[in-house]
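Look at a sample.

——
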Amino acid sequence: MAVYRFKVAFEDNEDVYREIEIKSAQNFEDFHNVIMQSIDFDNAHDASFFISDDYWRKGDEIVLRPVKEDDKRRPAEPKRQMNKCKMASLIDDPHQKFLYIYDPKTQWTFLVELLKIVPDDVKATYPKCAKSIGLAPKQYLKSDAIPVVVDEDEFDETEPDSDDEAYVLATNDDETALLESSEGEEEVVEEEMMEDSEELSEDAIEGSYEED
């Protein structure tokens, strides 16, 4: 049985490509699946092959899923379906070309060209990726980052308030310690003044008794 070797390149960067081998009796859905595996995409979206000429112009379409009656993206006429269309049925050129488009929303586009027909390896499993050149881009460009949630219960009230101007100005441990010692000295002075005031009051009271 004939085995086709195709070059599958990213349209935006032809230096990144895969060489895929697939048997002539296998179908376009098999081809679609091995392409997804070779570039590590999730295979969760719709896709189409288009028969192409040497200028990469779109011809007849081979769809992954049957067209729905209410699907406005495509014309109403019947389309070839990947799982019902064997590779050999659409290969009539030694350098047969296809455009392969994955995910109608993002429009990942690939240039697919038949390189040659190779002998069937009875020990191999087809379809397979025979060569991988270049790192495929990430399928999804935006990642959903998980926001960091601060637990208010974990807030330590013994720690200085970050908005406290004095602690903001204290940029090292020595300055912070100096501030704390200054606060302690102020408290001691206030206590001594209160004690002196109380002693003066007691002396005044005793003096008034003696005059009487």
In short: The helical segments are 28-39, 165-169, 173-211. Residues 3-133 form a domain with the Structural Genomics Hypothetical 15.5 Kd Protein In mrcA-pckA Intergenic Region; Chain A fold (CATH 3.10.290.30). The chain has two domains: 3-133, 165-211.
